[in-house]
Structure formats: structure tokens, C-alpha cells
Specification:
The chain is an alpha+beta fold. It has 17 helices and 10 strands.
Length: 391
């Protein structure tokens, strides 16, 4: 006997509970026409990160992905925000940090398992149904789907904010040719609050709900080239991601969700010692961090960010490691960033190494970093000499 659409939806909601899905919502598969116009303006302004699907039709029209699409099922899983007894940085043993969205097992894998379980239930209820599962890396906009499906509203920080879990949620969706009664969108509830815009250290949140991805520190931690000097001191100890715009949100205060064991953080992975990161081989990096979402771009961005953190902390115990990178590493970005860190730390050993490297370095960008670092070392030496004479 053929089931009614409302019965199928109810059965899927029950299955979502069994699968420990925190939120499930249903939306029509009509094109996101308003979103498409916003994305056009976003592109024209130069605010795209380059990680997005380039085809705006695929990002806004579910039928470009599944031609017979009628409905979209959106899900959300909450993740933890606190660690039990997190390891702390100490002089000579400074640590970096992976953002909360990279704690535990890679969320792409976890959400896909949940969605595949939901898909199996749908096919049991409607044999022969078509369904396509997507998590984050799919063409369709996760946030637009979640908003239409009533999971939450799109906050001024561009995150989906849920009444129950704040924005500490992962999103995924499934497009299907089965008609399912849609849910009502959640009305926007940020009100007059501008905490996220005020706290953004780079001004990447150029307006409520509008992000210049190219200036966003979360994006910049994932790039592989040189990080512009004006951003280096703003990273703090972050190795992957950045979450100030979420941390200051009133809806996120005192929220911590530990019911998904897959997302339980390994403290030594998410707050690793910085100096050992500089020596990891590709194999060692994959073995240690490969199960985390923050590993997707490989070790180079993580090592670059670790070097920046050591320079920012002015860790003199890291000078020998940084000199080795400056002299021996085949990657210009790593050599140049090591030069910057040595200039920031200063001291005779750093200055001598920079001076020697400047005589043999062939990469123009690295040479520029060395010259700037030497200038910083000379400035420090002059300041120290002046202080000595005044004393």
C-alpha cells in the first residue's frame, strides 16, 4: 500500500531520532533564486574564497544535481565546544589549536553515515526513489537549504544559528524525487546584536550576513601560499579555522554538546605542541591528523601556521628549528615564513642565520621576507643598545 507523504515524513523523523540526528527539516527543491542573485553580487565584489562550486546554477538549483528533485531533507549534528583538562601552552612548549569544527572524526564522514542511513530508510519506504546525499563539499548551499528547511536562521556571522544548539552544528542534506511536506523557515532572530561584526579582527564581515572570504582568518588558515603580514599576528595560535564570530554570539554562550562520541576531541591532536609539527613527514602527518577535518589541505598550511604562532609567541627555543627550515626546506612558503618568525623572535643567532640565508636564497619572495626580518632584528638590536646606554 502506498504511503502518504506525511506518513513518510513522520517515519523519516523517527529514523532520524534512532540515528541520533539532532535536527531534521524538510524543504521544497525549488530553485534558490534570491540566493543566486546574492551570490552574483558576492562574486562581483571579489568575496569568494575559491573553494566554492563555481557554477552558480548548481549552487542554487537542486534540479541541476538531481533533475527530478522535489524535496530536500536537511540535517544538523551538534558538536562540543569544551575539553576536559585541555593541555596548556608553556614557555618552550607552546601549543597551537584546531578550531572546534575539526575536533574528533571528520564531520563529513559522520554526517554522510547518518544521511546514508536516512537514505536507506527512504528507499525502504519508497522503493525506487532517487536520492543524492551531500555534506559541505557538495554543490548546493548547505546554509540555504538548512534555512529553508527550518533548521535555523542565517546569522549575521553567516552561520546557521539554531535555537537549541546555537551555531555549533554541522549541516548536511539529501535531495530526493519524493514529495515531502515542507517545514516552515525559522524567522531571523539576531535583532540589533552586532557582536560578531564588532569582534571580527579583519573586518571580513563587511555587513550583516555578508562575508569577504578572502579576509576571513578561518579561510586564510587553509590557504597554501604566503599569509599576508597584516594577518599573521591576528591568528593567535590557530592552526586551522578561526571562530571568534561564533564564540561571541549570545546564542552560543555556555553551550557544549558531548553526546556524539565521534566528535570527542583528542586533546593532543587539537592542541598540539608546535615545534614537533615542523618536523612531520607527510606520512606522519596523515597518521596523526588524517582523521580530522582540519587535515584536508595537507600539512603545509598547518606547518606555516605553526611557524607563525612560534614567531608570535617569540619562542627562542624554536630558533634552531626555524633556522633548519630556513636553510633546508624546499618549500619557499615555509622558508619565507620561518624568516619572518626569526625576525620576530630576534637575537644574534637569528640575525646571523638570516644574514647567511640572504646571500644564498634565490626565491625573490623569500629574499624579501629575509630582508624584512633582518630589518626587524636590527631594530631590536638598536632598541636594546639604546636601553643599555640609558640604564
Amino acid at each position: 500500500m502506498k504511503m502518504e507523504a506525511a506518513e513518510i515524513k513522520k517515519a523519516l523523523q523517527m529514523e532520524a531520532k534512532r540515528l541520533k540526528i539532532d535536527k531534521i527539516g524538510f524543504a521544497s527543491a525549488e530553485p534558490f533564486t534570491e540566493l543566486k542573485e546574492r551570490l552574483k553580487r558576492h562574486r562581483e565584489a571579489g568575496f569568494e574564497s575559491g573553494f566554492e562550486e563555481p557554477d552558480l546554477d548548481k549552487r542554487t538549483d537542486p534540479r541541476k544535481i538531481l533533475p527530478e528533485a522535489r524535496s530536500i531533507i536537511a540535517i544538523a549534528l551538534a558538536y562540543p565546544t569544551k575539553m576536559e583538562q585541555p593541555p596548556v601552552s608553556k614557555p618552550g612548549a607552546y601549543r597551537g589549536v584546531f578550531c572546534r569544527a575539526s575536533w574528533g572524526e571528520d564531520y563529513h564522514n559522520v554526517l554522510k553515515r547518518k544521511l546514508e542511513g536516512l537514505k536507506a530508510k527512504l528507499l525502504e519506504l519508497v522503493p525506487g526513489a532517487a536520492a543524492t546525499v551531500m555534506v559541505d563539499t557538495g554543490a548546493l548551499s548547505d546554509r540555504a537549504v538548512a534555512e529553508r528547511a527550518g533548521i535555523g536562521w542565517s546569522g549575521k556571522n553567516t552561520s546557521i544559528i539554531t535555537p537549541e544548539f546555537g551555531s555549533w552544528v554541522y549541516l548536511g542534506e539529501m535531495i530526493t524525487d519524493v514529495h515531502l511536506p515542507p517545514d516552515q523557515p525559522v524567522t531571523e532572530a539576531c535583532g540589533d546584536c552586532t557582536a560578531c561584526l564588532d569582534a571580527c579582527p579583519t573586518g571580513a564581515l563587511v555587513a550583516p550576513g555578508q562575508l569577504n572570504s578572502r579576509a576571513c582568518l578561518a579561510y586564510l588558515t587553509q590557504t597554501k601560499g604566503f599569509l599576508a603580514p597584516e594577518y599573521r599576528d591576528l591568528l593567535g595560535g590557530y592552526l586551522y579555522g578561526f571562530e571568534t564570530c561564533q564564540a561571541v554570539c549570545p546564542y552560543n554562550r555556555k553551550k557544549n554538546f558531548t553526546h556524539h562520541e565521534e566528535f570527542t576531541p583528542d586533546p593532543e591532536k587539537v592542541r598540539p605542541l608546535l615545534k614537533p609539527l615542523l618536523q612531520l613527514s607527510n606520512r606522519e602527518f596523515r597518521e596523526r591528523f588524517g582523521s580530522m577535518a582540519g587535515s584536508w589541505r595537507g600539512k603545509k598550511p598547518i606547518q606555516r601556521n605553526a611557524i607563525i604562532a612560534l614567531g608570535r609567541f617569540r619562542d627562542r627555543t624554536a630558533v634552531p628549528d626555524l633556522i633548519r627550515l630556513l636553510k633546508e626546506d624546499p618549500r619557499p612558503v615555509i622558508r619565507g615564513t620561518a624568516a619572518w618568525a626569526l625576525g620576530r623572535i630576534g637575537g644574534p643567532e637569528a640575525a646571523d642565520a638570516l644574514s647567511l640565508a640572504g646571500k644564498t636564497e634565490r626565491d625573490q619572495k623569500v629574499k624579501e621576507e629575509i630582508e624584512k626580518a633582518l630589518d626587524e632584528c636590527r631594530g631590536e638590536e638598536t632598541a636594546n643598545h639604546r636601553t643599555y646606554r640609558e640604564a
